[in-house]
Amino acid sequence: MELRVLRYFLAVARTGTLTAAAAQLNVTQPALSRQLKLLETELGVQLINREHKPVTLTPEGIYLVKQAEDMIAIADKTVTNLQSKEAIAGVITIGAAETVMFNHVIQAISKLQRDYPNVTTTLISGSTTDLLTRLNQGELDFLFALDFTQKASYDYLDFPGADVRGVFINRHHPLANEPAITAEQLTQYPVAISRQSSFNDSLVEELGLKASQLNIRMKYNLIGNARMYPLVDDQLLLVGIAGVINAPELLFKPFTPENISTGTMIWKHTPFLTPLHEEFIHYLENELPIK
Known about the structure:
The chain is an alpha/beta fold.
């Protein structure tokens, strides 16, 4: 598949008509139609329902839209970074779990951009499980992960310190006056918890619980929206990390015994890092406190 033809296909998908896409691409409609038919022949599937006005995508076409967007984004970023090798410029794409430890990364990025104003950053938040796939596929340059256990497969920097895990609760929760939350108390109330299996497995194991003992009402990917749940349910325990929510209506209670998460910045093994990526790692190393 040629990137040029994928761009043609995306133009049709976005505009809804061959006429509008041809005008946008500055090609003739017959030429555009011919290129799309060749693409369908190459792939062995129909991508567009041409009898509909505007045209609609087949299930295979819908799938290709997302894949094409990702491939073109990677290609464009690669070209930008290669062409910028002389002057440290380009795009750094970082995936990150929600954690206050990420402040070290922000500090490093800020100082890097102060010295190299033509550097831009794309930040994608999410669970390590979701983002690791994107790193392996080349959509991310770096991934900041919590409690990462596959370090042998990547290059990495461990961060000093740790995040404290516990629960966010409504100020009117029955446990509001408790200094910390025990495993037994965790089983007595409904909980909302990360959908990331590694987070939950280590949490349950370290607290001496079985997953079946928890009354799980919600599994979340990012805690930002989930934080609204304990605001309306004063019985709910929202499992998370200290500092990631700043809401005066909620209280944070750590677990007892203490339960912590460690942080690691990882990237794929390669002897050919771009000057931009090498410089980012250098700035990040300088930003991290000495262990």
